[in-house]
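#lab-general

N.A. 3:47 PM
ok so I finally got the sequence cleaned up, no stray characters, all 200 residues accounted for. can someone with queue access submit it? mine expired

B.Y. 3:52 PM
send it over

N.A. 3:53 PM
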Amino acid sequence: MEFSQADFDRLLLSEHTRKTSELNYAKDPLDAENLTKWGGALLELAQFQTVSDAKTMIADAISKLDEALMINPSKHETLWCMGNVYSTSAFMTTDQDEAKVSFDKAAQFFQRAVVADPGNELYQKSLEVAAKAPELHMEFQKAAADQQSMGGASSASSTANVAKKNSDLKYDIFGWAILAVGIAAWVGMAKSHVPPPPPR
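B.Y. 4:20 PM
back already:
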């Protein structure tokens, strides 16, 4: 797989965020904002990994976000990020039942994020998309199975093309999830750095 400059920049930024969050955690393990950033960075980094390594990073992201929610159960950025992690996890499995469990969890977290911040259009859209995700997953799995069955008697180059298409789809899904995480992180930081009102 080839990386564009933008991919490489995202990879570096995410790795820097992960390392910084790890250091900050050593200083203050009860910082929910830091744990949320750490979980988001792990989700971002997962898209650059093999499937098995990505699943490990996603499990780590869930752990960090769970920790953040134990500290602040109504932190909408964390709830939304957790929904993205579970959506990503669902798309990475071929087992329909396992995917359904993850999609259901994602929808629950998106719903909680909407309740915590009802005016946030991104959270509303994420909840709407979560309702369609199981159907998309089923279509993706059917297309992958069809490609494998048609490619059984074809050449190695055809197999490489199928693998590339599957890889491209994985990166597309991860890309949208990461974009959403990035927007949420940016909105969260912007809200936390609002200048004070002018004196009267």
